[in-house]
Design brief:
Length: 274
């Protein structure tokens, strides 16, 4: 029994070493990709809930890791966050997306921001300089953030938000309904928009409890005059239910997957033709 116990411990140790090594390699490759500007940005359409007309885009980062293929942002973003690479990565995405949307003056842009970036006291300054360099009107841009940082560090979050607001950029509370989201935060921090997480949207098919939750959530946001975007919309039924609930914008595979700038261009031209 002693033998197998030791054998097992040895096995787990090796397993953990292998995992750590894989993570280190991933981090090194990610650092290189950021330095060489090899990350790419895709754009997912956001439509008006009533008309399904294209009104905006969400920028989503992609990494084609040499020798491995595409790595999910759910894997590489946490690594970027824990290694401090997120500041550079985040500003790269913002810069690239701002350059790109210059071609589509009628569309808004949403960009995801990690709490780690928010901790940099000069973050707002960096954002402002991206707007200046790319000639972007700040009011076209919404920065999407999850509630985590606001819960952990409300005072500093408030200060950082104030600096961003002075630039004229908008701030959305992302992933609402995915965790312990509280409508209190919406009011307290004065978010400009709420994004309903896809998990809540997908729960709609399961019946009335999810529908009740959705109605309650959206009507609270609306009573605070905060517009609502629902993400992860995959079916017509979901789109109809969300519109009826009072969401004003929708996003999801039903309207378009994250796509290249060329693909957005085609959509944009169709939109202009009516
Ligand atoms: P998110 O901000 O909640 O973005 C929405 C995610 O849902 C995206 O996953 C998008 O591709 C996916 N999605 C969109 N429509 C549908 C749908 O109809 N059905 C389903 N099942 N999924 C849909 P993606 O691109 O893999 O990104 C995952 C997460 O990684 C994002 O979640 C965001 O938190 C993070 N992320 C991506 N790019 C960036 C970035 O540039 N900076 C930061 N900080 N985070 C990023
Ligand atoms: Ca988002
Ligand atoms: Ca989400
Ligand atoms: Ca997210």
């Amino acid at each position: 029994a002693k033998e197998t116990g030791r054998g097992r411990a040895e096995y787990y140790r090796k397993e953990m070493d292998a995992e750590r090594e894989e993570r280190n390699k991933l981090e090194i490759d990610l650092r290189i990709a950021i330095e060489r500007r090899e990350l790419t940005v895709l754009y997912q359409p956001v439509v008006e809930a009533g008309t399904w007309r294209l009104v905006g885009l969400e920028a989503l980062c992609r990494w084609d890791r040499p020798g491995y293929g595409y790595v999910s942002p759910d894997v590489f973003i946490p690594i970027a966050e824990s290694t401090g690479l997120i500041d550079q990565l985040g500003l790269f995405v913002l810069h690239r997306a701002c350059e790109t949307i210059a071609a589509w003056p009628e569309l808004k842009l949403a960009v995801n921001i990690s709490p780690g970036q928010f901790r940099d006291p000069a973050f707002a300054v960096h954002v402002g300089s991206v707007f200046r360099k790319t000639g972007t009107k700040p009011s076209r841009v919404t920065l999407e953030m999850t509630e985590g940082y606001f819960i952990q560090n409300p005072e500093r979050a408030r200060g950082a938000l104030a600096k961003l607001r002075q630039l004229g950029v908008k701030i959305a509370l992302d992933d609402f309904g995915a965790g312990f989201s509280s409508v209190g935060y919406l009011r307290q921090f004065g978010f400009d928009r709420m994004k309903i997480d896809k998990s809540l949207v997908h729960a709609l098919a399961e019946g009335s409890r999810a529908v009740d939750m959705l109605h309650a959530t959206v009507s609270l946001a609306r009573s605070l005059d905060i517009p609502v975007t629902a993400e992860g919309v995959e079916t017509k039924d979901q789109a109809v239910a969300l519109k009826l609930s009072g969401c004003d914008e929708l996003q999801g595979y039903l309207f378009g997957k994250p796509m290249t700038a060329q693909e957005v261009d085609a959509l944009y031209r169709k939109r202009s033709e009516g």
